[in-house]
């Protein structure tokens, strides 16, 4: 919500606008938190709802609450209107800059054309939530001269009244209107007054006249010009005067589609631009999204190629390799169909899940083909009969693997919040792929085996020709020797179980230590090809002084070799609008044209800005990893005063916190997210004396408001478009405190009384911006973790500093930091629920409560590997890592299922427990290594990737690769050990003879 109260101080806005709106925001469904900012002349409230809330419903509810507050708002605010939009203010996904190539248009001309002819068409583009214009359209500006007004015995209110009376549309009726007199032959409309159009017409407005014909006109007491509606911001593009607009995305809109639609609309409007006017895209986050998707698709292709190679290495004939290859497009297309049916889009998250699924979905087909070939070789059966026999052996394992891998990810789909939205993308994609994969493995894959595979003699294999014909026998002999050594190693481990249990205990201890030591984060920091620059000049600095500092900063930034363009706005920032604030949007060159990352460039700029710009604080920050979750990357903390110590104490606590944060090595660029308190001239009016002089309080108020702050009177017509009329004192009459005495008010006797006769003033400091969080005054503290430090560690450190402040101050999190804290509390619940689902699926599969324990005990081995790989690479425990950890849990269980399923079947056929376990381990080693290597090579391109979006790919791929490696190298030893131990202590279950007897009885 945005409201305008022209000329009002931040305190006035807070008491008369912000708090009134806040108090009405009760009973809203799914509201998470509310923050507000009151600054000179404007109020802004942001209401953040739970993820999944219908934005249209929320907007209607908020609009209804605003309507209830309307009667309590000042008239000036009601006249401007309270704007409610369903997008995060300040969260701009695109900034468009307009500039005059030939210099024929100045900044005001550009801003007027942009606001009059471009803003509305872009606002109507589907998916655009709101448009923030840097500049404004023309307005009729009437600059009053206090001496001339006094000379004619006039006040500002007289001017306003005359304009309201003479600049208006009057419905004068008609001649011969019905009911008409009998015989009336004429009917015509009567026009009289209408809205004025030109400065000349406004200068002719009569303010005062007498019987002798003498008159005082508006042009006699002031200057009337066609100026700008708002002079608060000055924009430049690469140092050239420009104007621009920032576009916010509507809640739930697709950024790529909206960006394309905006660019297409601009191209449609381009032919109608005035000569010399052009536009530039100064800031755009969508190229990062598009390139990230391209990189993931590339990774997907690399993963498929590597998976095919590893399958051919083990299967050793192209017919067998073709069967799992056919499964890939079938399952992928089916998965895309499921996503489309559920309303999901192809994005980086679903494509990440596809990359993971590539290694998983071929596992089932590999298991089918490998077992069919083994049966053909060992029993000499033809392909058709071998397929039947093979499916009787492995159907249970296939179903178990599918159930486990699906059960691991299904709980993710039911978590709430923004974290749940991210989880849900992975959950739906991988679960759909796994279910379709097992369906293909149970139907299409055995049919292809029976059709494509060639018969082989008992004990033989399909011969390969050429160089591979010599390589494969050598590989098979080596693999056979490795299999024998593996069986021997498992046998020794089963004979001496104590060292194995001790080694497992060490793995558990290492896993716990790594969980404790691994830094936490919400999402990995990404190089989006964009930077934002925040500039704060000293409190009370004028726009000219701010522009000078901004030009110095802009010159330094543009000299950086990685910078493509820079768009700056003086007078505007996401922290608040004032003359001493400014903001810049930096567009970096393409990732292929630079070696430094966005973080490295930002750190370089921040380190050099103290010397480059001495009269202002300048910070370069990265955009947030997820749009609408905060205004920039890093953390956002709300320093609160629940004890009611007051504004001054809160300011002192803020300064103390910033001082301590500056000395912490884990924190970087910690700063106050608002505007510093500024010098204010406090004018005290002596109402008693004013009354004695016969001066009306309402005349005093209207004169001060119009002279110093400016009054919006009504509208005029310019180029067939309605624009505004403002009355304000001329610049020379409102520069110094003594200028207030130049303004006079007429008393009851008709005498002009200077305001200085009944007023006095003093200087003080008051807030430029007053921020509130959930209805209580707060200070927004933003910052970034230092290089090599996770956001979770930085958040813990800054929260610890708040706890050390005297006076009972507290903190709350907002933006992405709020989501990160929520995600951290959900992670352990997610792991526990997923593990429980896996265990229940295994218990149902084996009809036993004890056998699943042998599989589940192998899971921590994979988790330890994922943690170790992530820690060695200096990555964080973020959402992508958590997804990878769940995938590792499922993969570790899958390897255990392949061994336990065969061991249980062999044991039921009459073999001893140890012999059955050793035989199962030997038989299943090849498919375990095949599927694990296929999966590891499938995710390897994610681990080694670079460019846009590589942060997320590294976080996801590294953990999964490390976990699968550990699960494969160590898990294949621990699973047989745990199976023997569990079956020894819990030997329950029916024997094979009992099963046969029961079948015969049936």
From TrEMBL:
Entry keywords, A to Z: Cell inner membrane, Cell membrane, Membrane, Transmembrane, Transmembrane helix, Transport
Annotated GO MF terms: efflux transmembrane transporter activity; xenobiotic transmembrane transporter activity
GO CC entries: plasma membrane
Transmembrane segments: 296-315, 322-343, 349-369, 390-414, 426-454, 501-518, 828-846, 853-873, 879-900, 928-948, 960-982
GO BP terms: response to toxic substance
InterPro entries given in the database record: AcrB_DN_DC_subdom, Acrflvin-R, MdtF-like
Location of this chain's protein in the cell: Cell inner membrane
Topology of the protein relative to the lipid bilayer: Multi-pass membrane protein
Keyword field contains Transmembrane helix: yes
Family to which this protein belongs: Belongs to the resistance-nodulation-cell division (RND) (TC 2.A.6) family.
NCBIfam families with a match to the protein in the record: 2A0602, RND_permease_1
Protein name in UniProt: Efflux pump membrane transporter
Species whose genome carries this gene: Castellaniella defragrans (Alcaligenes defragrans)
């Amino acid at each position: 919500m945005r409201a305008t109260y022209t000329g009002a101080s931040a305190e006035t806005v807070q008491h008369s606008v912000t708090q009134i709106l806040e108090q009405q925001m009760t009973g809203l469904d799914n509201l998470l938190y509310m923050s507000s900012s009151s600054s000179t002349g404007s109020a802004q409230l942001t209401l953040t709802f739970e993820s999944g809330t219908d934005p249209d419903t929320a907007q209607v509810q908020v609009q209804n609450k605003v309507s209830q507050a309307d009667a309590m708002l000042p008239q000036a605010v009601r006249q401007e209107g309270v704007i409610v939009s369903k997008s995060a203010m300040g969260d701009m996904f695109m900034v468009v800059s307009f500039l005059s190539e030939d210099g024929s248009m100045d900044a005001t001309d550009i801003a007027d054309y942009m606001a009059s002819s471009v803003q509305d068409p872009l606002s109507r583009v589907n998916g655009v939530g709101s448009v923030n214009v840097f500049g404004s359209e023309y307005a009729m500006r009437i600059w009053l001269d206090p001496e001339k007004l006094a000379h004619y015995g006039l006040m500002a209110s007289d001017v306003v009244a005359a304009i309201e009376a003479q600049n208006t549309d009057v419905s004068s009726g008609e001649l011969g209107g019905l009911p008409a007199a009998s015989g009336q032959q004429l009917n015509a409309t009567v026009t009289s007054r209408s809205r004025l159009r030109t400065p000349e017409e406004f200068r002719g407005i009569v303010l005062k006249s007498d019987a002798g014909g003498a008159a005082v006109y508006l042009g006699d007491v002031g200057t009337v010009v066609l100026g700008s509606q708002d002079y608060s911001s000055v924009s430049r593009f690469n140092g050239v005067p420009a104007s621009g607009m920032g576009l916010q995305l509507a809640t739930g809109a697709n950024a790529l589609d909206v960006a394309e639609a905006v660019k297409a609309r601009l191209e449609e409007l381009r032919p109608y631009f005035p000569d010399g006017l052009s536009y530039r895209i100064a800031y755009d986050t969508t190229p990062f999204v598009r390139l990230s998707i391209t990189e993931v698709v590339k990774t997907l292709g690399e993963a498929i190629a590597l998976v095919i190679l590893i399958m051919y290495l083990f299967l050793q004939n192209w017919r067998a390799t073709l069967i799992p290859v056919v499964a890939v497009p079938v399952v992928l297309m089916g998965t895309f169909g499921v996503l489309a049916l559920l309303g999901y889009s192809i994005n980086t998250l679903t494509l990440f899940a596809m990359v993971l699924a590539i290694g998983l979905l071929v596992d089932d087909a590999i298991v089918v083909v490998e077992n069919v070939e083994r049966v053909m070789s060992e029993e000499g059966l033809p392909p058709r009969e071998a397929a039947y026999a093979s499916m009787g052996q492995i159907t249970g394992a296939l179903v178990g693997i599918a159930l486990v891998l699906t059960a691991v990810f299904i709980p993710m789909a039911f978590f709430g919040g923004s974290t749940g939205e991210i989880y849900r993308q992975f959950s739906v994609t991988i679960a759909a792929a796994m279910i379709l994969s097992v369906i293909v493995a149970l139907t299409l894959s055995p049919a292809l085996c029976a059709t494509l595979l060639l018969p082989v003699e008992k004990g033989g294999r399909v011969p390969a020709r050429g160089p591979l014909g010599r390589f494969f026998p050598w590989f098979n002999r080596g693999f056979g020797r490795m299999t024998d050594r593996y069986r021997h190693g498992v046998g020794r481990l089963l004979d001496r179980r104590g060292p194995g249990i001790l080694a497992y205990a060490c793995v558990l201890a290492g896993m716990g230590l790594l969980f404790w030591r691994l830094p936490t984060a919400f999402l990995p920091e990404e190089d989006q090809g964009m930077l934002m620059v925040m500039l704060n000049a000293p409190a009370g600095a004028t726009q000219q002084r701010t522009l000078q500092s901004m030009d110095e900063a802009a010159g330094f930034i543009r000299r950086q070799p990685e910078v493509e363009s820079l768009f700056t706005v003086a007078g505007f920032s996401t922290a608040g609008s004032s003359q001493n604030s400014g903001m810049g949007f930096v567009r970096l060159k393409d990732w292929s044209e630079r070696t430094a990352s966005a973080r490295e460039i930002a750190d370089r700029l921040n380190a050099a800005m103290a010397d480059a710009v001495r009269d202002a604080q300048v910070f370069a920050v990265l955009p947030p990893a997820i749009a609408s979750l905060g205004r920039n990357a890093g953390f956002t903390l709300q320093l609160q005063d629940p004890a009611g110590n007051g504004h001054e104490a809160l300011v002192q606590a803020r300064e103390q916190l910033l001082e301590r944060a500056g000395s912490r090595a884990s924190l970087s660029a910690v700063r106050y997210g608002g505007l510093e308190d500024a010098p204010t001239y406090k004018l005290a009016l002596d109402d008693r004396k004013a009354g004695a002089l016969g001066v009306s309080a309402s005349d005093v108020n209207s004169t001060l408001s119009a002279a110093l702050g400016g009054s919006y009177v009504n509208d005029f017509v310019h180029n067939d478009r309605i624009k505004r009329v403002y009355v304000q004192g001329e610049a020379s009459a409102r520069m110094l405190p003594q200028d207030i005495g130049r303004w006079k008010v007429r008393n009851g006797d008709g005498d002009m009384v200077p305001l200085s006769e009944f007023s006095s003033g003093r200087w003080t400091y008051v807030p430029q911006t007053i921020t509130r969080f959930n209805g209580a005054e707060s200070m927004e503290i933003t910052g970034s973790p230092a290089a090599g430090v996770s956001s979770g560690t930085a958040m813990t450190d800054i929260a610890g500093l708040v706890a050390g402040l005297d006076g009972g101050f507290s903190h709350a999190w907002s933006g992405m930091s709020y989501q990160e804290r929520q995600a951290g509390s959900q992670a352990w619940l997610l792991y526990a629920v997923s593990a429980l689902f896996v265990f229940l699926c295994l218990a149902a599969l084996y009809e036993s409560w004890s056998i699943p324990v042998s599989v589940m005990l192998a899971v921590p081995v994979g988790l330890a590997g994922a943690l170790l790989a992530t820690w060695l690479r200096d990555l964080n425990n973020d959402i992508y890592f958590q997804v990878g950890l769940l995938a590792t849990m499922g993969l570790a269980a899958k390897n255990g299922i392949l061994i336990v399923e065969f061991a249980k079947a062999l044991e039921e056929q009459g073999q001893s427990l140890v012999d059955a376990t050793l035989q199962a381990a030997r038989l299943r080693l090849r498919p375990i290594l095949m599927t694990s290597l296929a999966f590891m090579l499938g995710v390897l391109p994610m681990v080694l990737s670079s460019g846009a979006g590589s942060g997320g790919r590294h976080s996801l791929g590294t953990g999964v690769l490390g976990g699968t490696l550990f699960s494969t190298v160590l898990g294949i030893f621990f699973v047989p050990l745990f199976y023997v131990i569990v079956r020894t202590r819990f030997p329950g279950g029916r024997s094979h003879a009992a099963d046969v007897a029961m079948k015969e009885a049936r």
